[in-house]
Amino acid sequence: MSISDWPEGERPREKLQERGPGALSNAELVAILLRTGTLGQTALDLARSLLTRFGSLRGLAMATPNELATVPGIGPAKRASLAALAELARRYQVESIERGKAFEDPKAVRDFLAGKLRDRNREIFGCLFLDNRHRVIAFDELFQGGLASTNVHAGEVVRRALLYQAAAVILAHNRFLESN
């Protein structure tokens, strides 16, 4: 039975319009993004399958295009929608700290860096450059490594700090963010 055959109050899109996005399950929200299912499988069935296969929303967001391509019914258009959602979520998380806004506590710094560096499949070392009031001047990913290591050159960190005339520098590594 297709979703269009369901009672209106149970259809994900109509449910979202009537009750708001908070009333929907993760699978229902993903189903809205997918828009359609496959032969014999509704968009909601496909969404549930994806969430089960990848373990969670975060797992689904981290899935590579090649991993998604192995799922029947997930073609280029659906892969693009899922990748766009993951990127929008990442950008939303870091948008609250824009250039010129001051960090007021360590949690805000951690949240900002987690949004920038978390869930990357390579080692990343970056620097957050701040002025004397702890306002963001810039964030630069300075070094990328392989799957398990990266080389950091102190001279490049110092050169960038001088270039930005930063009063403070916060060093960040994506594997540190995952462990805490």
Strand content: 5-15%
Whole-number mean pLDDT:
84
How much is the radius of gyration in Å?
Answer: 21 Å
Q: Order of helices and strands, N to C?
A: HHHHHHHEEHEH
Q: How many angstroms does the end-to-end distance come to? A: 45 Å
- Helix percent reads 40-55%
How many beta-strand runs?
Answer: 3
Low-confidence stretches: none
3D shape: elongated
Largest sheet: 3 strands, antiparallel
Question: Order of strands across the biggest sheet?
Answer: 2-1-3
- The total count of helices amounts to 9
User: Which class best fits the helix and strand makeup?
Assistant: alpha+beta
Topology record:
Blueprint: H1 12-19, H2 26-34, H3 43-54, H4 57-62, H5 65-69, H6 76-95, H7 106-117, E1 124-130, E2 136-144, H8 154-164, E3 168-173, H9 174-179
Helix pairs in contact: 2-3, 6-7
